[in-house]
Amino acid sequence: MAGKAKDEILYDHNHDGIDRRGFLKCMAWAGTGALCVMSGGVLKSYSLSRLPEMSSKESLGELSFVQISDSHMGFNKPANPDVAGTLKAAVDKINALSAPPEFMLHTGDVSHLSKPEEFDTVDQILKSAKPQDVFYVPGEHDVLNDDGKQFLERYRRGSKGAGWYSFDKKGAHFIGLVNVMNLKAGGLGTLGHEQLEWLEDDVKHLKHSTPIVVFAHIPLWSVYPEWGWGTEDSAQALSYLKKFGSVTVLNGHIHQTLQKVEGNVTFHTAASTAFPQPQPGKADSPGPMKVPAEQLKSVLGITDVNYVQGQHALAVVDLTLA
Amino acid sequence: MRRSVSIAVLTVALVIGLGTIDIRHVSVLASAQQKAETTEVKIDNFSFGPGTLTVPAGTTVTWINRDDIPHTVVSTEGVFKSKVLDTDEKFSFTFSKAGTYPYFCSIHPKMTGKVIVQ
Question: Residue A236: which residues within 8 A CB-CB, separation 6 or more?
Fold first, then answer.
Protein backbone atom coordinates (compact mmCIF):
# COMPACT_ATOMS: atom_id res chain seq x y z
CA MET A 1 0.00 0.00 0.00
CA ALA A 2 1.33 3.42 -0.84
CA GLY A 3 1.83 5.95 1.94
CA LYS A 4 2.34 3.30 4.56
CA ALA A 5 3.25 5.84 7.20
CA LYS A 6 -0.29 7.14 7.08
CA ASP A 7 -1.70 3.69 7.70
CA GLU A 8 -0.49 3.40 11.24
CA ILE A 9 -3.04 2.10 13.71
CA LEU A 10 -4.96 4.88 15.41
CA TYR A 11 -7.37 2.95 17.62
CA ASP A 12 -6.65 -0.70 18.20
CA HIS A 13 -9.95 -1.54 19.95
CA ASN A 14 -9.56 -5.30 19.78
CA HIS A 15 -5.81 -5.33 20.39
CA ASP A 16 -5.39 -7.25 17.19
CA GLY A 17 -3.30 -4.77 15.29
CA ILE A 18 -6.25 -3.58 13.23
CA ASP A 19 -8.02 -0.28 13.69
CA ARG A 20 -11.35 0.43 12.04
CA ARG A 21 -9.95 2.91 9.57
CA GLY A 22 -7.20 0.56 8.53
CA PHE A 23 -9.67 -2.26 8.28
CA LEU A 24 -12.10 -0.35 6.07
CA LYS A 25 -9.23 0.73 3.88
CA CYS A 26 -8.16 -2.83 3.38
CA MET A 27 -11.73 -3.86 2.66
CA ALA A 28 -11.27 -2.09 -0.65
CA TRP A 29 -9.27 -5.07 -1.81
CA ALA A 30 -10.51 -7.84 0.46
CA GLY A 31 -13.00 -10.51 -0.55
CA THR A 32 -12.30 -13.92 -1.95
CA GLY A 33 -13.12 -16.67 -4.38
CA ALA A 34 -11.64 -18.59 -7.24
CA LEU A 35 -12.07 -18.48 -11.01
CA CYS A 36 -12.17 -21.96 -12.46
CA VAL A 37 -11.23 -22.31 -16.11
CA MET A 38 -11.71 -25.66 -17.74
CA SER A 39 -9.23 -25.97 -20.52
CA GLY A 40 -8.51 -29.16 -22.39
CA GLY A 41 -10.51 -30.99 -19.77
CA VAL A 42 -8.19 -29.65 -17.10
CA LEU A 43 -9.69 -27.39 -14.53
CA LYS A 44 -7.49 -24.52 -13.47
CA SER A 45 -8.42 -22.35 -10.56
CA TYR A 46 -7.15 -18.82 -10.12
CA SER A 47 -7.35 -16.88 -6.93
CA LEU A 48 -9.19 -13.70 -7.85
CA SER A 49 -6.36 -11.54 -6.62
CA ARG A 50 -4.03 -12.98 -9.22
CA LEU A 51 -6.33 -12.07 -12.06
CA PRO A 52 -4.40 -9.00 -13.13
CA GLU A 53 -1.36 -11.26 -13.74
CA MET A 54 -3.33 -13.67 -15.87
CA SER A 55 -2.97 -13.66 -19.60
CA SER A 56 -6.21 -13.51 -21.51
CA LYS A 57 -5.34 -16.93 -22.90
CA GLU A 58 -5.26 -18.39 -19.41
CA SER A 59 -8.62 -16.99 -18.55
CA LEU A 60 -10.26 -18.46 -21.62
CA GLY A 61 -11.61 -21.95 -22.03
CA GLU A 62 -14.79 -23.64 -23.07
CA LEU A 63 -16.28 -23.07 -19.71
CA SER A 64 -15.41 -20.85 -16.82
CA PHE A 65 -17.14 -20.60 -13.51
CA VAL A 66 -16.40 -19.21 -10.09
CA GLN A 67 -16.25 -20.99 -6.77
CA ILE A 68 -16.94 -19.00 -3.65
CA SER A 69 -17.08 -20.50 -0.19
CA ASP A 70 -17.57 -19.98 3.51
CA SER A 71 -19.11 -16.52 3.44
CA HIS A 72 -20.21 -17.06 7.09
CA MET A 73 -22.64 -14.17 6.93
CA GLY A 74 -23.34 -13.14 10.53
CA PHE A 75 -19.78 -13.68 11.79
CA ASN A 76 -18.59 -10.45 13.43
CA LYS A 77 -15.52 -11.32 15.51
CA PRO A 78 -12.12 -9.59 15.19
CA ALA A 79 -10.84 -12.04 12.54
CA ASN A 80 -13.20 -10.15 10.19
CA PRO A 81 -15.86 -7.80 11.54
CA ASP A 82 -17.22 -7.13 8.03
CA VAL A 83 -17.93 -10.39 6.22
CA ALA A 84 -20.54 -8.63 4.07
CA GLY A 85 -17.81 -6.23 2.91
CA THR A 86 -15.43 -9.03 1.95
CA LEU A 87 -18.19 -10.90 0.09
CA LYS A 88 -18.98 -7.71 -1.82
CA ALA A 89 -15.30 -7.38 -2.63
CA ALA A 90 -15.37 -10.93 -4.02
CA VAL A 91 -18.37 -10.04 -6.18
CA ASP A 92 -16.52 -6.96 -7.47
CA LYS A 93 -13.58 -9.19 -8.43
CA ILE A 94 -15.91 -11.59 -10.21
CA ASN A 95 -17.60 -8.75 -12.07
CA ALA A 96 -14.21 -7.42 -13.17
CA LEU A 97 -13.29 -10.65 -14.98
CA SER A 98 -12.75 -10.04 -18.68
CA ALA A 99 -14.75 -13.11 -19.67
CA PRO A 100 -17.83 -13.37 -17.44
CA PRO A 101 -18.03 -16.80 -15.77
CA GLU A 102 -21.08 -18.84 -16.70
CA PHE A 103 -22.16 -19.58 -13.16
CA MET A 104 -21.04 -19.75 -9.55
CA LEU A 105 -20.65 -22.60 -7.10
CA HIS A 106 -21.00 -21.85 -3.39
CA THR A 107 -19.40 -24.64 -1.40
CA GLY A 108 -21.21 -23.98 1.83
CA ASP A 109 -21.28 -22.09 5.12
CA VAL A 110 -23.27 -19.40 3.37
CA SER A 111 -24.47 -18.32 6.81
CA HIS A 112 -22.80 -18.39 10.21
CA LEU A 113 -25.84 -19.35 12.32
CA SER A 114 -28.46 -20.47 9.75
CA LYS A 115 -30.48 -17.30 10.41
CA PRO A 116 -32.91 -16.23 7.66
CA GLU A 117 -31.49 -12.70 7.64
CA GLU A 118 -27.97 -14.06 7.07
CA PHE A 119 -29.11 -15.99 3.98
CA ASP A 120 -31.07 -12.89 2.87
CA THR A 121 -27.93 -10.73 3.06
CA VAL A 122 -25.89 -13.17 0.96
CA ASP A 123 -28.71 -13.46 -1.60
CA GLN A 124 -28.86 -9.68 -1.80
CA ILE A 125 -25.09 -9.29 -2.29
CA LEU A 126 -24.91 -12.06 -4.90
CA LYS A 127 -27.70 -10.38 -6.88
CA SER A 128 -25.12 -7.86 -8.03
CA ALA A 129 -22.81 -10.57 -9.42
CA LYS A 130 -22.76 -10.92 -13.20
CA PRO A 131 -23.17 -14.71 -13.14
CA GLN A 132 -26.71 -15.05 -11.86
CA ASP A 133 -26.81 -18.82 -11.75
CA VAL A 134 -25.54 -20.07 -8.37
CA PHE A 135 -25.30 -23.71 -7.33
CA TYR A 136 -25.08 -24.32 -3.59
CA VAL A 137 -24.20 -27.15 -1.27
CA PRO A 138 -24.67 -26.66 2.48
CA GLY A 139 -21.96 -26.31 5.10
CA GLU A 140 -22.55 -27.38 8.70
CA HIS A 141 -23.32 -23.76 9.63
CA ASP A 142 -26.24 -23.74 7.16
CA VAL A 143 -28.13 -26.66 8.65
CA LEU A 144 -28.16 -25.75 12.35
CA ASN A 145 -31.34 -26.45 14.33
CA ASP A 146 -33.52 -27.56 11.39
CA ASP A 147 -31.54 -30.30 9.61
CA GLY A 148 -31.17 -28.04 6.61
CA LYS A 149 -34.87 -27.55 5.89
CA GLN A 150 -34.53 -23.81 5.36
CA PHE A 151 -31.40 -24.23 3.23
CA LEU A 152 -33.18 -26.68 0.92
CA GLU A 153 -36.22 -24.42 0.64
CA ARG A 154 -33.98 -21.60 -0.54
CA TYR A 155 -31.44 -23.35 -2.73
CA ARG A 156 -32.98 -26.67 -3.77
CA ARG A 157 -32.04 -27.65 -7.33
CA GLY A 158 -34.38 -30.55 -7.86
CA SER A 159 -32.05 -32.08 -5.34
CA LYS A 160 -32.40 -35.46 -3.71
CA GLY A 161 -32.28 -36.52 -0.06
CA ALA A 162 -30.45 -33.94 2.04
CA GLY A 163 -29.82 -31.82 -1.05
CA TRP A 164 -27.45 -33.64 -3.40
CA TYR A 165 -27.84 -33.23 -7.16
CA SER A 166 -26.01 -33.21 -10.48
CA PHE A 167 -26.12 -31.20 -13.70
CA ASP A 168 -24.27 -30.92 -17.00
CA LYS A 169 -22.54 -27.89 -18.50
CA LYS A 170 -20.81 -28.00 -21.86
CA GLY A 171 -20.01 -31.67 -21.65
CA ALA A 172 -18.78 -31.60 -18.07
CA HIS A 173 -20.76 -33.35 -15.34
CA PHE A 174 -21.13 -31.48 -12.04
CA ILE A 175 -22.07 -33.27 -8.83
CA GLY A 176 -23.05 -31.42 -5.65
CA LEU A 177 -22.68 -33.62 -2.55
CA VAL A 178 -23.81 -33.04 1.04
CA ASN A 179 -21.45 -34.24 3.79
CA VAL A 180 -22.51 -32.11 6.76
CA MET A 181 -25.63 -33.96 7.95
CA ASN A 182 -25.96 -36.43 10.84
CA LEU A 183 -22.36 -35.99 11.98
CA LYS A 184 -21.42 -38.57 14.63
CA ALA A 185 -19.48 -37.96 17.84
CA GLY A 186 -15.76 -38.14 17.19
CA GLY A 187 -16.32 -38.47 13.47
CA LEU A 188 -15.70 -36.62 10.22
CA GLY A 189 -17.97 -35.40 7.45
CA THR A 190 -20.23 -38.12 6.11
CA LEU A 191 -22.10 -38.80 2.87
CA GLY A 192 -24.17 -41.79 3.97
CA HIS A 193 -25.42 -44.90 2.25
CA GLU A 194 -28.35 -43.32 0.40
CA GLN A 195 -26.24 -40.60 -1.18
CA LEU A 196 -23.47 -43.05 -2.14
CA GLU A 197 -26.00 -45.27 -3.89
CA TRP A 198 -27.37 -42.28 -5.74
CA LEU A 199 -23.86 -41.23 -6.80
CA GLU A 200 -23.00 -44.68 -8.12
CA ASP A 201 -26.16 -44.63 -10.20
CA ASP A 202 -25.70 -41.01 -11.31
CA VAL A 203 -22.33 -41.64 -12.98
CA LYS A 204 -22.97 -45.19 -14.20
CA HIS A 205 -23.97 -44.25 -17.74
CA LEU A 206 -21.50 -41.43 -18.33
CA LYS A 207 -18.65 -41.82 -20.83
CA HIS A 208 -15.22 -42.25 -19.29
CA SER A 209 -14.05 -39.15 -21.13
CA THR A 210 -16.62 -36.92 -19.39
CA PRO A 211 -14.87 -34.39 -17.16
CA ILE A 212 -16.31 -34.72 -13.65
CA VAL A 213 -16.48 -31.88 -11.14
CA VAL A 214 -17.54 -32.83 -7.62
CA PHE A 215 -18.27 -30.08 -5.12
CA ALA A 216 -19.03 -30.47 -1.41
CA HIS A 217 -18.37 -28.47 1.73
CA ILE A 218 -16.06 -30.63 3.87
CA PRO A 219 -12.99 -31.88 1.98
CA LEU A 220 -13.45 -35.29 0.34
CA TRP A 221 -9.83 -36.15 1.18
CA SER A 222 -8.14 -36.35 4.55
CA VAL A 223 -6.70 -32.88 4.97
CA TYR A 224 -6.41 -33.14 8.76
CA PRO A 225 -8.75 -35.63 10.41
CA GLU A 226 -7.65 -34.47 13.89
CA TRP A 227 -9.60 -31.27 13.20
CA GLY A 228 -12.41 -33.07 11.44
CA TRP A 229 -11.09 -31.97 8.03
CA GLY A 230 -12.08 -35.01 6.03
CA THR A 231 -15.06 -37.19 5.05
CA GLU A 232 -15.41 -40.70 6.45
CA ASP A 233 -16.89 -42.40 3.42
CA SER A 234 -15.25 -40.29 0.70
CA ALA A 235 -13.09 -43.22 -0.49
CA GLN A 236 -16.21 -45.08 -1.53
CA ALA A 237 -17.54 -42.04 -3.36
CA LEU A 238 -14.25 -41.61 -5.20
CA SER A 239 -14.17 -45.30 -6.12
CA TYR A 240 -17.23 -44.69 -8.31
CA LEU A 241 -15.25 -42.02 -10.18
CA LYS A 242 -12.16 -44.11 -10.87
CA LYS A 243 -13.15 -44.87 -14.46
CA PHE A 244 -13.13 -41.22 -15.46
CA GLY A 245 -10.08 -39.60 -16.98
CA SER A 246 -10.59 -36.24 -15.30
CA VAL A 247 -12.08 -35.73 -11.87
CA THR A 248 -11.88 -32.45 -10.00
CA VAL A 249 -13.06 -32.14 -6.40
CA LEU A 250 -13.83 -28.68 -5.06
CA ASN A 251 -14.32 -28.14 -1.33
CA GLY A 252 -14.48 -25.36 1.22
CA HIS A 253 -14.66 -25.65 5.03
CA ILE A 254 -10.97 -25.16 5.87
CA HIS A 255 -10.77 -21.49 4.83
CA GLN A 256 -7.51 -21.80 2.90
CA THR A 257 -6.41 -23.10 -0.46
CA LEU A 258 -4.84 -26.52 -0.66
CA GLN A 259 -4.37 -28.65 -3.74
CA LYS A 260 -3.50 -32.27 -4.24
CA VAL A 261 -3.41 -34.67 -7.17
CA GLU A 262 -4.11 -38.34 -6.59
CA GLY A 263 -4.29 -40.50 -9.69
CA ASN A 264 -7.06 -39.16 -11.90
CA VAL A 265 -8.39 -36.89 -9.16
CA THR A 266 -7.37 -33.32 -8.44
CA PHE A 267 -8.50 -31.94 -5.10
CA HIS A 268 -8.86 -28.26 -4.32
CA THR A 269 -10.07 -26.41 -1.30
CA ALA A 270 -11.15 -22.81 -1.67
CA ALA A 271 -10.39 -19.90 0.61
CA SER A 272 -13.20 -18.35 2.60
CA THR A 273 -14.70 -14.99 1.71
CA ALA A 274 -14.97 -14.34 5.47
CA PHE A 275 -11.96 -15.29 7.60
CA PRO A 276 -8.86 -17.49 7.34
CA GLN A 277 -8.15 -20.60 9.43
CA PRO A 278 -4.73 -21.93 10.45
CA GLN A 279 -2.81 -24.47 8.41
CA PRO A 280 -3.49 -28.07 9.48
CA GLY A 281 -1.92 -28.71 12.88
CA LYS A 282 -0.25 -25.30 13.02
CA ALA A 283 -2.42 -24.11 15.91
CA ASP A 284 -4.15 -25.57 18.98
CA SER A 285 -7.51 -25.46 17.25
CA PRO A 286 -8.97 -24.58 13.85
CA GLY A 287 -10.47 -21.32 15.16
CA PRO A 288 -10.56 -18.12 13.08
CA MET A 289 -7.08 -16.77 12.44
CA LYS A 290 -6.45 -13.11 13.11
CA VAL A 291 -4.11 -11.63 10.57
CA PRO A 292 -3.03 -8.02 10.07
CA ALA A 293 -5.55 -6.14 7.96
CA GLU A 294 -3.07 -5.69 5.15
CA GLN A 295 -2.75 -9.47 4.92
CA LEU A 296 -6.44 -10.30 5.12
CA LYS A 297 -6.96 -9.86 1.41
CA SER A 298 -4.25 -12.36 0.62
CA VAL A 299 -5.80 -15.12 2.71
CA LEU A 300 -9.35 -14.72 1.45
CA GLY A 301 -10.27 -15.76 -2.04
CA ILE A 302 -12.50 -17.07 -4.76
CA THR A 303 -11.85 -19.84 -7.27
CA ASP A 304 -12.34 -19.49 -11.00
CA VAL A 305 -12.44 -22.55 -13.21
CA ASN A 306 -12.13 -22.59 -16.96
CA TYR A 307 -12.79 -25.60 -19.16
CA VAL A 308 -11.83 -26.25 -22.74
CA GLN A 309 -14.02 -28.84 -24.37
CA GLY A 310 -12.67 -31.77 -26.33
CA GLN A 311 -9.41 -32.24 -24.48
CA HIS A 312 -8.85 -34.05 -21.27
CA ALA A 313 -8.30 -32.18 -18.11
CA LEU A 314 -9.59 -29.46 -15.88
CA ALA A 315 -7.60 -26.72 -14.31
CA VAL A 316 -8.30 -25.05 -11.04
CA VAL A 317 -6.40 -22.06 -9.79
CA ASP A 318 -7.20 -20.21 -6.62
CA LEU A 319 -7.13 -16.47 -6.65
CA THR A 320 -6.76 -14.43 -3.52
CA LEU A 321 -8.64 -11.19 -3.13
CA ALA A 322 -5.45 -9.22 -2.83
CA MET B 1 -47.03 -26.35 86.79
CA ARG B 2 -47.89 -29.00 84.32
CA ARG B 3 -48.61 -26.31 81.82
CA SER B 4 -45.24 -24.56 82.28
CA VAL B 5 -43.39 -27.88 81.87
CA SER B 6 -45.08 -28.53 78.57
CA ILE B 7 -44.23 -25.01 77.44
CA ALA B 8 -40.61 -25.66 78.39
CA VAL B 9 -40.65 -28.91 76.43
CA LEU B 10 -42.15 -27.15 73.45
CA THR B 11 -39.54 -24.41 73.64
CA VAL B 12 -36.73 -26.98 73.76
CA ALA B 13 -38.31 -28.82 70.84
CA LEU B 14 -38.57 -25.57 68.91
CA VAL B 15 -34.96 -24.67 69.59
CA ILE B 16 -33.83 -28.12 68.48
CA GLY B 17 -36.07 -27.82 65.44
CA LEU B 18 -34.67 -24.42 64.53
CA GLY B 19 -31.17 -25.74 65.06
CA THR B 20 -31.84 -28.55 62.64
CA ILE B 21 -33.27 -26.18 60.08
CA ASP B 22 -30.21 -23.97 60.44
CA ILE B 23 -27.87 -26.86 59.87
CA ARG B 24 -29.80 -28.02 56.82
CA HIS B 25 -29.84 -24.50 55.48
CA VAL B 26 -26.09 -24.23 55.84
CA SER B 27 -25.51 -27.58 54.11
CA VAL B 28 -27.78 -26.57 51.20
CA LEU B 29 -25.81 -23.36 50.81
CA ALA B 30 -22.51 -25.20 50.93
CA SER B 31 -23.50 -27.65 48.22
CA ALA B 32 -24.89 -24.82 46.07
CA GLN B 33 -21.53 -23.10 46.30
CA GLN B 34 -19.78 -26.32 45.44
CA LYS B 35 -22.06 -26.79 42.44
CA ALA B 36 -21.39 -23.29 41.19
CA GLU B 37 -17.70 -24.12 41.17
CA THR B 38 -17.75 -27.54 39.63
CA THR B 39 -20.71 -27.74 37.29
CA GLU B 40 -19.72 -25.30 34.59
CA VAL B 41 -18.13 -26.64 31.44
CA LYS B 42 -16.31 -24.06 29.35
CA ILE B 43 -16.21 -24.41 25.61
CA ASP B 44 -13.04 -22.80 24.35
CA ASN B 45 -10.53 -23.38 21.57
CA PHE B 46 -12.67 -26.15 20.07
CA SER B 47 -12.74 -28.23 23.27
CA PHE B 48 -14.87 -28.89 26.35
CA GLY B 49 -13.23 -28.12 29.68
CA PRO B 50 -13.19 -30.23 31.75
CA GLY B 51 -13.56 -32.96 29.16
CA THR B 52 -14.81 -35.35 31.83
CA LEU B 53 -16.96 -33.95 34.64
CA THR B 54 -18.07 -36.04 37.65
CA VAL B 55 -21.09 -34.77 39.61
CA PRO B 56 -23.64 -36.12 42.11
CA ALA B 57 -27.13 -36.94 40.82
CA GLY B 58 -29.42 -33.93 40.74
CA THR B 59 -26.68 -31.55 39.59
CA THR B 60 -27.37 -28.98 36.95
CA VAL B 61 -24.47 -28.64 34.53
CA THR B 62 -24.10 -25.45 32.53
CA TRP B 63 -22.03 -25.20 29.36
CA ILE B 64 -20.87 -21.76 28.29
CA ASN B 65 -19.36 -21.03 24.88
CA ARG B 66 -16.25 -18.87 25.26
CA ASP B 67 -15.14 -19.50 21.67
CA ASP B 68 -15.66 -17.08 18.80
CA ILE B 69 -17.25 -19.87 16.76
CA PRO B 70 -20.68 -21.39 17.51
CA HIS B 71 -20.88 -24.85 19.09
CA THR B 72 -23.54 -27.26 20.32
CA VAL B 73 -23.80 -29.69 23.23
CA VAL B 74 -25.48 -32.90 22.07
CA SER B 75 -25.81 -36.15 24.00
CA THR B 76 -24.49 -39.06 21.96
CA GLU B 77 -27.41 -41.14 23.24
CA GLY B 78 -30.07 -38.50 22.66
CA VAL B 79 -30.53 -37.58 26.34
CA PHE B 80 -30.03 -33.83 25.85
CA LYS B 81 -29.43 -31.46 22.95
CA SER B 82 -28.67 -27.75 23.04
CA LYS B 83 -29.56 -25.24 20.40
CA VAL B 84 -26.62 -23.62 18.67
CA LEU B 85 -24.63 -21.62 21.22
CA ASP B 86 -23.04 -18.48 19.86
CA THR B 87 -20.24 -16.77 21.77
CA ASP B 88 -21.10 -16.41 25.51
CA GLU B 89 -24.39 -18.31 25.20
CA LYS B 90 -25.20 -21.03 27.76
CA PHE B 91 -26.99 -24.35 27.95
CA SER B 92 -27.99 -26.18 31.15
CA PHE B 93 -29.14 -29.70 31.84
CA THR B 94 -30.02 -31.34 35.15
CA PHE B 95 -28.76 -34.89 35.58
CA SER B 96 -31.19 -36.77 37.83
CA LYS B 97 -30.00 -40.34 37.21
CA ALA B 98 -26.59 -41.86 37.80
CA GLY B 99 -24.68 -42.94 34.73
CA THR B 100 -22.16 -41.86 32.10
CA TYR B 101 -23.36 -39.32 29.56
CA PRO B 102 -21.08 -38.86 26.54
CA TYR B 103 -21.74 -35.81 24.41
CA PHE B 104 -20.24 -33.91 21.45
CA CYS B 105 -20.55 -30.78 19.35
CA SER B 106 -22.72 -31.67 16.36
CA ILE B 107 -21.06 -28.93 14.29
CA HIS B 108 -17.51 -30.05 15.11
CA PRO B 109 -17.92 -33.73 15.99
CA LYS B 110 -14.24 -34.10 16.90
CA MET B 111 -15.17 -32.16 20.04
CA THR B 112 -16.32 -34.69 22.63
CA GLY B 113 -16.80 -34.80 26.40
CA LYS B 114 -18.66 -36.74 29.09
CA VAL B 115 -20.50 -36.20 32.33
CA ILE B 116 -20.31 -38.95 34.94
CA VAL B 117 -23.25 -38.79 37.37
CA GLN B 118 -22.82 -40.66 40.66
Answer: A191, A196
Q: What share of chain A has pLDDT > 70, as a percent?
A: 77
Q: Has the ipTM of the complex gone over 0.85?
A: no
pLDDT at A191: 97
Instruction: Output the CA torsion A307→A308→A311→A313 (10° steps).
Output: -20
Are the Cβ atoms of B69 and A288 closer than 8 angstroms?
Answer: yes
Closest Cα in chain A, distance from residue B34 (Å): 30
Using DSSP bridges, classify how beta strands B52-55 and B112-117 pair: parallel, antiparallel or unpaired.
parallel
Which CATH code is given to the segment(s) B39-117? 2.60.40.420
- CB contact under 8 Å between B110 and A227, yes or no, is yes
pLDDT at residue number A266: 82
A285 in reach of chain B (CB within 8 A): yes
pLDDT value at position B21? 43
Which residue from B68, B106, B110 is facing A77, i.e. has the nearest CB? Answer: B68
Mean model confidence pLDDT for chain A: 81
Residue of B nearest to A284 (CA): B45
Structural domain boundaries in chain B: 1-38, 39-117
Note which residues in 101-160 of chain A have CB less than 8 A from chain B. Answer: 112-114, 140-141, 144-145
Query: In one letter, which amino acid is B74?
Result: V
For B105, the closest chain A residue by CA position comes to A185
**What integer pLDDT is reported at residue A316 of this predicted model?**
54
Taking contacts as CB-CB distances below 8 angstroms, the residues of chain A near B74 are 185
**Searching chain A, which residue's CA lies closest to the CA of residue B45?**
A285
> Which residue from B minimizes the CA distance to A179?
B107
Task: Tell whether B70 is within 8 A of chain A (Cβ).
Answer: yes
Decide if B103 and A286 are in contact by the 8 Å CB cutoff.
Answer: no
pLDDT at A114 over 60: yes
Q: According to CATH, what is the number of the domain A29-320?
A: 3.60.21.10
Enter the pTM of the model: 0.79
